[in-house]
Amino acid sequence: SSTTTTQPLIVVTPLPPDTTTIVVTTHAPQPMLVTSTTVPAGLRCPEWWPVLQAFWPEHLLRQADYVVWSETRCQNVHRSDVGVIGYGDHGIFQVNGINLDYLAGWGITADDLMNPAQNAVAALILFQWAENKYGCGWQPWYNSVNPWQLCNGETT
User: Fold this and answer.
1) Residues sharing a CB contact under 8 Å with residue 75, sequence separation 6 or more, in sequence order
2) At what angle do helices 61-72 and 116-134 cross, to 10 degrees?
3) Exposed/middle/buried for 6, CB within 10 Å: 0-12, 13-18, 19+?
């Protein structure tokens, strides 16, 4: 006998201005409300705040917002010279395909990186790896931001 498990899908549902709700949906008949949050003023990518807030530590949220803006101008995109998922950069944090072998150890695939929630988790995993290796978790994004400024708490 085989058992099928389903992974939760995280959906960000916009509400009236300055609020957002995160809904976790499985194949169950009714979605389950997880949290509702006020989106702070001054964000570059407020539409992704609930996703960032769900996975990233609070003290890194503003910098994470800045990186998403710097990388994609808030778009969930795939950039590749060959147009194939697995090459190039993926999702809101533009996680590079060079990291796929490492992320596979965490159960994350190239296709997963196009899900904004899974992309945020992958980015946090890479952040923690870079923090341990370089002393600055923002190093993987050095092509679009100054990681050392971000590691010193700056967001501009």
Assistant:
1) 92
2) 110
3) exposed
Taking only the tens of pLDDT, the chain with its 156 residues reads: 444 444 334 444 443 344 444 444 434 445 554 555 678 889 999 999 999 999 999 999 999 999 999 999 999 998 887 667 778 999 999 999 999 999 999 999 999 999 999 999 999 999 999 999 999 999 999 988 999 889 887 776
Q: Look up residue 156 and give its amino acid.
A: T
- Cβ-contact 36, 20 below 8 angstroms: yes
Which residues make Cβ contacts (< 8 Å) with residue 98, sequence separation at least 6? none
What's the CA angle centered on 7, arms 73 and 82, to 5 degrees? 45
Q: What's the rounded Cα separation, in Å, for the pair 32 and 73?
A: 30
Give me 100's structure tokens: 């796929």
CA–CA separation, 13 and 76 (whole Å):
15
Query: Is the pTM higher than 0.85?
Result: no
